[in-house]
Write the structure tokens for this entry.
Amino acid sequence: MYDYLIVGAGFAGSVLAERLANEGGKKVMLLDRRSHIGGNAYDFYDDHGLLIHKYGPHIFHTNSPDVFNYLSRFTRWRPYQHKVLAQVTGKLLPIPINLDTVNKLYGHNFNSEQLAQYFASIGEKIDTIRTSEDVVVSQVGRDLYEKFFRGYTRKQWGVDPSQLDKSVTSRIPVRTNQDDRYFTDEYQYMPLHGYTRMFENMLDNKNIHILLNTDYQDVEGFVPYKELIFTGPVDEYFDYCYGKLPYRSLHFKHVTLNEEWHQPVAVVNFPNDHAYTRVTEYKYLTGQKSDKTSITYEFPSAEGDPYYPIPRPENAELYRRYQSLAEDMPHVHFAGRLGTYRYYNMDQVVAQALTLYKKLALRTSAAETIKRTNGQRKKVSPAG
Ligand code: FAD
Ligand code: UDP
């Protein structure tokens, strides 16, 4: 009998398996329908010996010392500050939009103060910021919105930014200085030997039994367990009883080129050209040396594996219905980006999993205390 059956060996499932087995002393079965652990963060060495990310670029960044310290038990790190350029009107310009973006795009020579005044003059006045369009046009006006955000967002999400929750484009700041880093978090690193190695270290415990190429449906009813943790799509767990939750998918084209470098930074975004949104060149992330270089094109798609929950009010409403079903099941726990239908980064998923572990551990210790107390009462009563 397993104490826990955990569905999905991505960050959510693996962190929970590690905590439950290592700290909780529990017996865990961890299964995944894919042929590998790591979920979407899985990386591997391609035929040319270059470490690439099967499901697109994963850059670790967090402001949480707890998350960083926790993962540091399983990996050493390579400091890495992520840089992205967007191809707009034939030029490669920094994104997030900053002082250099505006000066190079329009041929201005603004300083930071002048740029702040410029943004204030072109930003549209919107009383309540609700959508992803509102976020951008209110900060930088319509021209920059159309050049950098509208096309990219329509391609990536299959809907106009005016139909998407403000949280999507709010991920990208606007700067008036020359800071050209994609993230400003306190901790920005790549796992030194890759994500998969980090997951292997995390799951190296004799009380964690890993079963790959196995769907939950294949084992349900065959594997005895006490509690279930489900990190796949929450609507799938409930047989889509309220209808399908919309997810956005991607198709990846991995290519190795016979040249040392392909582009000036790790990621180049294409808001207005091509069917793909961005191209990633992995050697920037890994620091590997080679006379070849491996890159990945990302083609957004409605069909395929679910990668992105789509933040829109009606989807949040549908998710809440599934969530209330989930709340009525004390022995089934949902976690992760798909299990809780949240557009979460890796560190947020780790934090969520650590919080769930604490809740489960508290519950176990409360149950043990009750058992112990009942046992003592039983022993006491015959004599009394
Ligand atoms: P997943 O990694 O999706 O793991 C869920 C696992 O469950 C999968 O392996 C799946 O096969 C398995 N599963 C599902 N259903 C079943 C079933 N019925 N039976 C068996 N197995 C099942 N985050 C960052 O912090 N930085 C980034 O740079 C970044 N870049 C990203 C780029 C892309 C293209 C994508 C798609 C995501 C990116 N993310 C990034 C987000 C990151 O991938 C997620 O936050 C994180 O991987 C989510 O972990 P998870 O365990 O919730 O889900
Ligand atoms: N975005 C955009 N243009 C860009 C970069 C981002 O319009 O050049 C928008 C787009 O809607 C995207 C969102 O901002 O989906 C979040 O971008 P991020 O890079 O965080 O996306 P992810 O890495 O999660 O795919």
